[in-house]
């Protein structure tokens, strides 16, 4: 039995102001079967609530789509960005209850 060669196309982006100040960014990539895996998305506190997170998310989705990705997947916690991902068209596909204690880890996907 032969092992599969690792396949990963990194898609890591940082959004900055005209002055070079970090607004936010995203760490992700395209793995096996053309799936976009979003590992982290953040927006600096002073820029939150202004639509930058949605723009960063839309950007990585578009770049991934252009490279052949057909689905995006990620996870978050109920105290982090659950509503943000729902608002941006992601569907919950599973969760781990009481992890961490008193909370939920939620898994999402979205067809690109």
Look at the structure and give the mean pLDDT. 94
Distance between the termini: 33 Å
Q: What does the largest sheet look like?
A: 6 strands, mixed
**Overall shape:** globular
Assign the CATH architecture.
Answer: 3-Layer(aba) Sandwich
Q: How many strands in all? A: 6
Give the CATH superfamily: Gcn5-related N-acetyltransferase (GNAT)
SSE order, as H and E? EEEHEHEE
Strand order of the largest sheet: 1-2-3-4-6-5
Low-confidence stretches: none
Instruction: State the domain count.
Output: 1
Folded structure, characterized:
The model has no long low-confidence stretch (mean pLDDT 94). Helices cover 19% and strands 43% of the residues. It has one domain: Gcn5-related N-acetyltransferase (GNAT) (Aminopeptidase). Strand 3 (35-43), helix 1 (52-66) and strand 4 form a beta-alpha-beta unit. The radius of gyration is 15 Å and the shape is globular. It has a six-stranded mixed β-sheet. It contains two helices and six strands. The chain has helices at 52-66, 82-87; strands spanning 9-16, 22-30, 35-43, 71-77, 91-97, 104-111. The relative contact order is 0.17. By secondary structure, it is α+β, with helices and mostly antiparallel strands. The longest helix has 15 residues, at 52-66.
């Amino acid at each position: 039995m032969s092992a599969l060669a690792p396949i990963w196309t990194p898609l890591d982006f940082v959004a900055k102001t005209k002055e070079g100040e970090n607004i936010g960014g995203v760490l992700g990539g395209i793995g096996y079967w053309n799936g976009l895996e979003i590992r982290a998305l953040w927006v600096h506190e002073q820029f939150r609530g202004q639509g930058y997170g949605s723009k960063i998310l839309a950007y990585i989705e578009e770049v991934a789509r252009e490279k052949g990705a057909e689905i995006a997947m990620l996870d978050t916690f109920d105290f982090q960005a659950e509503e943000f991902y729902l608002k941006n068209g992601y569907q919950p596909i599973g969760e781990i209850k009481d992890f961490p204690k008193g909370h939920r880890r939620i898994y999402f996907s979205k067809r690109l």
